[in-house]
Amino acid sequence: MVAKELKLGSFDDERFAKLLSPSLTTIHQPCIQIGKVAVQTMLQRTREPQTPPREILLDAPLIVRESS
Asked: Which residue of 9, 30, 52, 62 lies most exposed, with the fewest beta carbons within 10 A?
């Protein structure tokens, strides 16, 4: 059986994603915000080493384009 339709998605929302044909659906990763939160978390853990591990969730919107 041959697939007649393929849907494709990716991560990072690179600039070239919208330039492809068809344009690529992606998850936009907030890289600057990820870096800021990582540094803040590291500094907090340095000041307070007993801080328990935690999960930090950031918004990563789906950018729907032609590939899906």
From this structure: 52
Q: Do residues 26 and 11 make contact, with C-beta atoms less than 8 angstroms apart?
A: yes
Residue keyed to tokens 């990072």: 12
Question: pTM of the full predicted structure?
Answer: 0.69
Dihedral sign (CA 3, 64, 62, 24): positive
For residues 43-68, give the mean pLDDT: 93
Segments in the chain forming alpha helices (H) = 31-47
Give the residue among 41, 20, 32, 22 at the shortest CA–CA distance from 60.
32
Q: Whole-angstrom Cα distance, residue 65 to residue 61?
A: 13
